[in-house]
Design goal:
The complex is a heterotrimer of chains A (341), B (290) and C (367).
Chain A: H1 2-27, E1 29-34, H2 40-50, E2 54-59, H3 62-71, E3 79-83, H4 84-92, E4 96-97, H5 112-115, E5 124-125, E6 128-129, E7 132-139, E8 141-144, E9 167-170, H6 173-183, H7 194-210, E10 211-215, H8 218-227, E11 232-234, H9 238-247, E12 252-255, E13 261-271, H10 277-287, H11 290-300, E14 303-304, E15 318-320, H12 327-339
Parallel strand pairs in A: 1-2, 1-3, 9-10, 9-11, 13-15
Antiparallel strand pairs in A: 3-13, 4-13, 5-6, 7-13, 7-14, 8-11, 8-12
Chain B: H1 9-40, E1 44-46, E2 49-51, H2 57-64, H3 68-99, H4 102-113, H5 120-131, H6 136-143, H7 158-183, H8 186-194, H9 199-227, H10 231-236, H11 244-253, H12 258-287
Antiparallel strand pairs in B: 1-2
Helix pairs in contact in B: 1-12, 3-4, 3-7, 3-9, 5-7, 7-9, 8-9, 9-12, 11-12
Chain C: E1 6-17, E2 20-31, E3 35-39, H1 46-54, E4 61-66, E5 69-70, E6 81-84, H2 96-105, H3 111-124, H4 140-152, E7 158-162, H5 170-187, E8 190-195, H6 198-204, E9 207-212, E10 215-220, H7 222-227, H8 232-237, E11 242-248, E12 255-260, E13 263-268, H9 273-277, E14 283-288, E15 303-315, E16 318-325, E17 332-339, E18 352-357, E19 362-366
Helix pairs in contact in C: 2-3, 2-4, 3-4
The chains are: A alpha/beta (341), B mainly alpha (290), C alpha+beta (367).
C-alpha cells in the first residue's frame, strides 16, 4: 500500500531529524542565568575558545530558578546562577554537584574577600564547594530626583503618604519580609519569630496601600515608570535598573538605605544533572576571567568578584541575603498581604 | 457492503492506528494531565519536597483560609463582568458584520481576528501603556476636555484588569456571535417584517433570541479564558487587582507548593467545566429548534 | 366585498436585478375577494410579482395601487398584506401560538384579544391541539397550516402565497389545495397564489395569470385559458393540446378556416376580436383538445382528419391514443382522449382511423 509506505518514510525521516536535533543539543552546554550574565558576545567568545556550544535560558526570579531546577530534578540544565541565600536549599535537595576549585585557574585571581570560599557564607557544605561567587549587588532604592526631595536615606520613605500610588515594589514575599524587617529594626531579617512575622505582615499591608504596582522584571518596572507617575522604586535589580532608567533619560538616583541594604551574591553552580562536567567548569572559569567579570560590571553596574568596582561604597552597610526560616510561609503570607483589601 | 471484506490488511492497520490516535491524543493530553492534577491535589509539601501521602489538607485549607474563597469569588465576579462587557461590545460588531455584503463581511471579520495572531504579552504591554497615567487614553480624555488631569482610574486596579481582559478577549466573543447571527435564515426576518414588526421588534423578538446560543458560547469562551489568565491581572492589576489566577500561579511559580496549586486548579477546573456546560446547554437548547 | 372592484393594481411595473430585467412592464389588476393564481415556469417572474406586492423588494419602475392609493414605496411592515412563504419561515423559538399571534403582538394588541384570535385562527386551520408545540415538532402539512394561520390572523387585505405547497407530497398537496380554497371561501380574503403547477392552478383559482419570461401572457378564468388561449405558449403550457400550424383563411362569421398540412380546418373565433382582425394568410395554429377529437359520429360541418394509431395508453377513466396524421413529409402527432371501456378499446395500434372535431370545439392561436 503506497500510503503506508509513505507514512513509514515520513516517520523515519521525522525520527532522523529528531535524533539529529537531540544530538546537536547534547553537545551544547545548557545554562540558566539572569539577563546580563551570559551576553551573546561572551557566549560567542566562549564557544570560539572552547568549541563548546551554549544554550542560554534567561529567568526572571529566584522562584523561577527553583521551579525550573526542582521541576526537572536538575536534569534540564548543566550550569546555573543562584544566590547564596538560595544555594543551601539546592544543596539540601541534592540538586547541585560539588565543584573542584582546582579546575578553575581563574578562581586564584579573584578579590581577596572571595578567594577563600570557606569564609563566604552559604557557598560550602561539609567542606565541599558548591557555588563560585562572581557577581553581587545591593537592593537599594531608586528615586526620582525631581519628585523626591530631599534625597531619601531610609527605606521608611516607602511608607510616606506623600508618595501614595507612586511607588513600585517587587513581587516577592521573601525579600519584602526581609527588608521590612530591617526597616522595623529587627536584627536577623532572615529568621523572624511569629510575632515579628505578624508585625512585618501588617507593615507590608500598609506598604501595599502606598504602592502603585508590583513588578517582576526590570523591563516591566521601566515600562511602568515611563507611562505613569512613579517616584520611588524598590530596586530588586539595583545598578542594572538605575542604569537602564538613566539611559532613557529618567532623572533617577540610587541609594543604599541607612538601616542596611539587602545584597545578593550570585554564584555559578553545577547542577546534579550535568552532562559534561568539564564543559561546565570551563564555563565558570571563563566567567571568572577579568574580561568577562570586568565587562559585567561595566555593562550592568553590578559588583564582581575579580575586578574592583563601585557597586556599593565602602561606607554602605550591606546585608548579605541568607536563606529564610520558611520560604513557603513567607510566600503564603505574601499572598495574604496581596489579598488584603 | 461486501467491500469491507476485500480491504487490504495494511489499510485496516492504518485505520486502526488512526482510531487509536484519535482516542489516545485527548486521553494523553487532556485526561491524563487532569487526572495527575487531581491526584497531586491530595498530596502535601514539606521543605520543598512533595509528600506522596493522601490528605484532604489542601481542600480544607482552601475552604477555611480566609484569603482563598473571597479572592475566588471576586475573580468569578470579575470574569463574569468581562464576559458581559465582551458580549455588549462584540454583539454590535458581529451584527454590523452580518449586515455587510459578501467579501467585505469576511475581510472585516478577519481583520477583527488579527489581534489573535499577536503575542499575548505584547498586547498586555501595549494596553498597559495606553491605560497608564501618561498613556494615550488619558492624553485623549484630557485633550477632549473630559478630564481635567490624567487619572489613575484606568491602570493598576480592577478596572484595568476588566478593561484589558475585555479588549484581549473580544475576538473570542465576536466569532461565535457572528456565526450564530449568520445562521439565522433571512426569510425569518422577512416574515417578521411582513407580519408588521418594526426593525426593533424584529431584532428583539427574532434575531436576539435566535442568536442566544452564540452569545452563550461567546460568554462561556470569554469567561473560561479570563478566569484562567494570571498574566493580565499580574501586569495591570496593581495592588488591588489580586485574582485567583495570581494565587494559583504563585503556588507553582513561586511557592513551589504544587499539591496546593493542584487543589486550587481543581477548584478552578470545576468552575470552568460548569461554565462550559452552561454555555453548551444554552447553545444546544435553542439550536435544535432551528 | 365585490369581485368586480379592483383591490390592487399594478401599472407598468418593471423590475431589474442590476442590468438583468426580470419583469417587463407588467399591468395586472387583482379583484377584491378573488383567488388569483400566478402561474408560470421557473424564471417567469411570478415570484418577483409577489415579492414586489408584498414589499419584500422595491420596484424598478411603475406603481402599485391599493384601491387607488399608491403604495409603491410603503414599507413592508405597513402594507396590509401577509405572506405565506415557500419554506413557511416559522419562528423556531416560538410555539405554534407564539407564531400565529406574532402579527398581533407586534401591534401591541391586548393579550386576551390575541389569545382569543389565535384560538380562532388555529380552529380555522384545525390545529387547536398543537398550540403549544414548536415548529420542529410538526409535520410539513401542519407547518403549512401554521404559516397560513399566522398570515390570516392579521386580517390582511391580501394574502400572498409563494408556492406554499411545493414541499408537500402529492396526496397532502391535494388536501391542502381543497383546504386553502375552502378557507378562502370562508374568510373571503383575496388570495394571490404563485405556482408553477398548472393542475394546482386550475383546481383552485378564480382567475389565472399566466407568466412567461417576465411578461404576462394571459389573464382569465381557467375555462377561458383552457378553451381560448391567446397565444401558442398558453395553448401549449396550459393543459394537453393538439396544435396544427397553418395559414388563416377569410372570416366566416364566428368561424374562420385555417389551411394546414392536414387540410382545411374550421375553428371558432367567437369573443376573440384579435382573431377576427388578423389578416388572411397570417400564420396561426388550429388548436383542439384531445377530448374534442372523435372517432365516429361526425356531423356535416365537422372538421375531418385521418391517421394511424401509433400508441394507446390506458389512463384509468380515459384512454389516450397517439395518432400519426398527414403525409409522410408533414406527419404530425395528435392525441385523442376517450372514455375507457371495461371490454377494452376496439382500437389497435397500426389501425387507420378517421377523426373529427366540431368547429366550436376548435380554436385558433396566432403564431
Amino acid at each position: 500500500m503506497g500510503l503506508k509506505r509513505l507514512f513509514l518514510k515520513m516517520a523515519t525521516v521525522g525520527l532522523g531529524i529528531g535524533l539529529m536535533t537531540s544530538a546537536a543539543l547534547a553537545a551544547n552546554l545548557r545554562v540558566l542565568a539572569w539577563d546580563g550574565y551570559a551576553d551573546a558576545d561572551w557566549v560567542k567568545d566562549f564557544t570560539a575558545a572552547t568549541g563548546i556550544g551554549v544554550d542560554v535560558v534567561f529567568i526572571g526570579s529566584d522562584d523561577e530558578i527553583w521551579a525550573k531546577i526542582k521541576g526537572s530534578e536538575g536534569q534540564d540544565f548543566d550550569v546555573f546562577a543562584v544566590n547564596t541565600a538560595q544555594l543551601q536549599r539546592y544543596i539540601k535537595a541534592d540538586l547541585v554537584s560539588p565543584i573542584d576549585v582546582t579546575k578553575l585557574p581563574n578562581q586564584k585571581e579573584v578579590l581577596p574577600r572571595f578567594r577563600d570560599l570557606s569564609t563566604v557564607s552559604g557557598v560550602t557544605k561539609d567542606g565541599k564547594v558548591y557555588g563560585i561567587p562572581f557577581c553581587f549587588d545591593s537592593i537599594g532604592l531608586i528615586y526620582d530626583t525631581d519628585k523626591v526631595k530631599p534625597a531619601p536615606t531610609s527605606m521608611s520613605v516607602l511608607w510616606d503618604p506623600a508618595y501614595r500610588g507612586k511607588i513600585l515594589a517587587y513581587d516577592n514575599g521573601e525579600h519584602n519580609f526581609s527588608f521590612t524587617a530591617l526597616t522595623l529594626g529587627y536584627k536577623d531579617p532572615f529568621n523572624l519569630s511569629a510575632e515579628q512575622m505578624a508585625a512585618v505582615k501588617a507593615k507590608l499591608v500598609e506598604l501595599k496601600r502606598n504602592v502603585l504596582s508590583f513588578y517582576t522584571t526590570a523591563d516591566e518596572a521601566q515600562q511602568i515608570y515611563q507611562n505613569n507617575d512613579v517616584a520611588l522604586i524598590w530596586a530588586n535589580y539595583g545598578q542594572q535598573q538605575v542604569k537602564a532608567l538613566q539611559k532613557i533619560g529618567a532623572h533617577v538616583a540610587y541609594v543604599n538605605p541607612s538601616e542596611g541594604a539587602l545584597a545578593w551574591l550570585d554564584n555559578w553552580v553545577i547542577s546534579k544533572g550535568v552532562r559534561d562536567n568539564a564543559a561546565a567548569e570551563k564555563w565558570i572559569d571563563f566567567m571568572l576571567s577579568k574580561k568577562v567579570s570586568g565587562g559585567l560590571s561595566e555593562r550592568t553596574g553590578f559588583g564582581n568578584t575579580v575586578v574592583e568596582s563601585s557597586s556599593a561604597g565602602s561606607n554602605d552597610k550591606l546585608v548579605w541575603l541568607n536563606n529564610v526560616e520558611d520560604p513557603l510561609r513567607r510566600s503564603d503570607m505574601w499572598n495574604e498581604v496581596k489579598a488584603t483589601p | 457492503m461486501s467491500k469491507a471484506g476485500s480491504t487490504q490488511p495494511s489499510e485496516r492497520h492504518l485505520s486502526l492506528l488512526v482510531t487509536v490516535l484519535a482516542f489516545a491524543l485527548p486521553v494523553v493530553f487532556v485526561l491524563v494531565p487532569l487526572a495527575i492534577f487531581l491526584v497531586y491535589s491530595f498530596f502535601s509539601v514539606d521543605q520543598g519536597t512533595i509528600i506522596h501521602a493522601p490528605t484532604l489538607g489542601n481542600y480544607v485549607r482552601f475552604f477555611t483560609d480566609p484569603i482563598f474563597l473571597p479572592v475566588f469569588w471576586n475573580t468569578i465576579v470579575l470574569c463574569v463582568s468581562v464576559a458581559v462587557i465582551c458580549i455588549l461590545l462584540a454583539y454590535p460588531a458581529a451584527y454590523f458584520l452580518t449586515t455587510l455584503k459578501g467579501r467585505w463581511r469576511y475581510a472585516l471579520l478577519m481583520l477583527l481576528l488579527v489581534p489573535l495572531l499577536m503575542s499575548y504579552v505584547i498586547k498586555i504591554y501595549a494596553i498597559r501603556s495606553i491605560l497608564g497615567l501618561n498613556g494615550f487614553l488619558n492624553k485623549a480624555l484630557v485633550a477632549l476636555g473630559i478630564l481635567e488631569q490624567p487619572s489613575t482610574l484606568f491602570v493598576f486596579n480592577m478596572n484595568a484588569i476588566l478593561l484589558t481582559l475585555s479588549l484581549l478577549l473580544i475576538p473570542f466573543a465576536i466569532l461565535p456571535i457572528f456565526l450564530s447571527l449568520e445562521r439565522i435564515p433571512q426569510t425569518l426576518l422577512r416574515a417578521s417584517d411582513d407580519l408588521g414588526a418594526s426593525g426593533l421588534q424584529t431584532f428583539l423578538r427574532i434575531i436576539l433570541p435566535l442568536s442566544l446560543p452564540g452569545v452563550a458560547s461567546a460568554a462561556s469562551f470569554v469567561f473560561v479564558l479570563a478566569i484562567g489568565d494570571f498574566l493580565t491581572p499580574q501586569m495591570v492589576g496593581g495592588i488591588s487587582g489580586f485574582t485567583f489566577g495570581r494565587i494559583l500561579y504563585s503556588q507553582f511559580g513561586t511557592a513551589y507548593n504544587w499539591p496546593f496549586g493542584a487543589a486550587l486548579s481543581v477548584a478552578l477546573a470545576i468552575v470552568v467545566i460548569c461554565a462550559i456546560l452552561i454555555g453548551e446547554r444554552f447553545g444546544r437548547n435553542r439550536g435544535t429548534s432551528i | 366585498m365585490n369581485q368586480n372592484t379592483d383591490l390592487l393594481t399594478l401599472r407598468s411595473v418593471s423590475k431589474s436585478y442590476g442590468p438583468v430585467p426580470v419583469l417587463h412592464d407588467i399591468d395586472l389588476s387583482i379583484r377584491d375577494g378573488e383567488f388569483l393564481t400566478v402561474l408560470g415556469p421557473s424564471g417567469s417572474g411570478k415570484t418577483t410579482v409577489l415579492r414586489l406586492i408584498g414589499g419584500l423588494e422595491p420596484l424598478t419602475t411603475g406603481e402599485i395601487r391599493l384601491e387607488g392609493q399608491d403604495i409603491s414605496r410603503m414599507p413592508i411592515n405597513r402594507r396590509p398584506f401577509n405572506t405565506v412563504f415557500q419554506d413557511y419561515a416559522l419562528f423556531p423559538h416560538m410555539t405554534v401560538s407564539g407564531n400565529v399571534g406574532y402579527g398581533l403582538s407586534v401591534r401591541h394588541i391586548q393579550r386576551k384579544e390575541i389569545a382569543r384570535r389565535v384560538a380562532e385562527a388555529l380552529e380555522l386551520v384545525q390545529l387547536e391541539r398543537f398550540a403549544d408545540r414548536f415548529p420542529a415538532q410538526l409535520s410539513g402539512g401542519q407547518r403549512q397550516r401554521v404559516a397560513l394561520a399566522r398570515a390570516l390572523i392579521c386580517q390582511p387585505r391580501l394574502i400572498l402565497l409563494d408556492e406554499p405547497l411545493a414541499a408537500l407530497d402529492l396526496e397532502l398537496r391535494r388536501q391542502m389545495q381543497e383546504f386553502l380554497k375552502s378557507i378562502q371561501r370562508e374568510i373571503k380574503t383575496t388570495f394571490l397564489f404563485v405556482t408553477h403547477d398548472q393542475e394546482e392552478a386550475i383546481g383552485m383559482a378564480d382567475r389565472i395569470c399566466v407568466m412567461q419570461a417576465g411578461h404576462i401572457r394571459q389573464l382569465g378564468t381557467p375555462h377561458e385559458l383552457y378553451y381560448k388561449p391567446n397565444c401558442e405558449f398558453v395553448a401549449r403550457f396550459f393543459g394537453e393540446n393538439n396544435l396544427v400550424a397553418g395559414k388563416l383563411g377569410p372570416v366566416q362569421g364566428e368561424l374562420r378556416p385555417i389551411e394546414t398540412a392536414l387540410g382545411r380546418l374550421v375553428c371558432s373565433i367567437s369573443d376573440q376580436p384579435h382573431l377576427k382582425a388578423a389578416l388572411d394568410g397570417a400564420s396561426a395554429f388550429a388548436a383542439f383538445r384531445p377530448e374534442a377529437l372523435r372517432l365516429a359520429g361526425a356531423k356535416d360541418n365537422d372538421n375531418r382528419l385521418s391517421g394511424t394509431i401509433a400508441d394507446l395508453a390506458f389512463a384509468g377513466s380515459s384512454t389516450v391514443a397517439t395518432i400519426t396524421a398527414g403525409a409522410d413529409n408533414a406527419a404530425q402527432r395528435l392525441r385523442l382522449r376517450m372514455p375507457s371501456r371495461i371490454d377494452g378499446s376496439m382500437l389497435k395500434s397500426g389501425e387507420t382511423v378517421s377523426l373529427s372535431f366540431a368547429p366550436h370545439e376548435g380554436h385558433l392561436v396566432l403564431a
